[in-house]
Target: Glycoside hydrolase/deacetylase ChbG (UPF0249 family)
Amino acid sequence: MTRSLVLTADDAGTHPDADREIAALLAGSPLTAVGVITAHVDGEQNPGALRAVELVARAAPDVAPGVHVVLPEPAPDGGFDDVVDRVTDQIDALARATAVVGSPAPDRLDSHQGTLYGLSGRSYLAEAISVCARRGLAFRLPRGLELYGDGDPLLTTPAVRERHASAVAAADAAGVRLPRVIATHRGGDAEARDYVSLRDHYLRLLDRLPEGTSEIFLHPAPDTARLRELSAGWWRKRTWELRLLGDPVLVREIDRQGIDLVGRW
Model:
């Protein structure tokens, strides 16, 4: 079995400068996928989603975007009883945007800041899997937690492991496609330290990818005053991730390891 990788840029639709960079990366870098935000954290529709989809369609017309689900913060006591409607509305919004520009319809669902997983609140894994099954979408729920959970004691607890195993079994029973593992850099600027350290982190992740189809997701963005404001404590890392996707060292390492770049798992 081969090792395949979906290399994804998340948070498209949040800023025009970042959207332009993501579209350019899809046309001329190892990047193969994109997650688009169609709702703001206050629950209102994000008008930047159509802009992002238009840019992606022009640069990479065969790329089907993912639905990067956002739930309002803070969640009410007890969580969202209408989460299925909220998720479905965001899927429909992105489907309408892709229909307008004639690009492929959304093909997967993922979770902004892990809100669907229940790592810091109520879990919506059952609801997300049900929606994915009905809509024929894949879901960013890893079969294995070994890379995403590096150094996170929460993901080693029996309760989380049991919840994860049950969700994987439910997805399999419903025919929902899952990646083998997912990985990223989960810290901010302070944890990333500098560009070389961050690049070394992602190169080590490549070396550890198991057989099957996995995903590495990043949040590339240019250095602008607005993005510094929106991503305080994170903006340097985002600019470094943008730089990484154009770094020939990354390309050479993917080739050296014989990793196949693909657009879906």
